Amino acid sequence: MVLDLPVTFSMRTVLAGYRFPFRWNPTHRARVGLLPRNGTAADIVWCAVEPCFVFHVANAYDDADGRVVVDVVAYERVFASAGGGLDTPGRLERWTADPATGRVDRRVIDSAPQEFPRIDERRFGRPHRYVYTGSVPADGNTQLVGATQIYKHDLATGERRVHEFGADRVPGEFVFVPAGPEAGEDEGWLVGLVIDTASDTTDFTILDAGAFEAPPVATIPLGHRIPPGFHGNWFPNQRAE
Fold it and tell me: Is 163 annotated as a binding residue?
């Protein structure tokens, strides 16, 4: 799947002295490309989508009708102002790209501001039930850090569960770790870093994915503060050998 969305390189922005050269381009047609796994560029099928922008995809898979289903965090507009930046917060959506009609259907799963969607990575390329995301401040601050919650979305029931870390405790992107090779989709742990802005320290925190709202299973103080970040990963020991 190729996301071709209306953010493009702007020479005018570069010549104006801005360091970030990309801007929202309303004249650029938004589309999603479906490329067969063993295909070539000539085989790609383009599907039109309403203008928006996506940084991060949770997962994508083929459904029984030959469509591609993909869960994303989508923004209605980004980098439109002179200095760049996120003009609107992201929301969790499900896109269904249909090569037969050449269209993408967008459905909002959760309109709350959020980012960094993750799933049980054993489900990559297959239907999934749970998506984990980090909350984003809803006070007009569209920076991607500062909120104190992460979310667990149950796509079968439509339920959103919330883990609250407490005042001044800002979580990063949490990663799902299965309890074992045959564990259920939410049978395992969520691991990530939490910054305590009051004490300027960082903890490595482990949550029980099945008891998402419960206090952490473990909180491990680290030797120094680690700045906000994202895109951590976990893999079993045998993959590192």
Answer: no
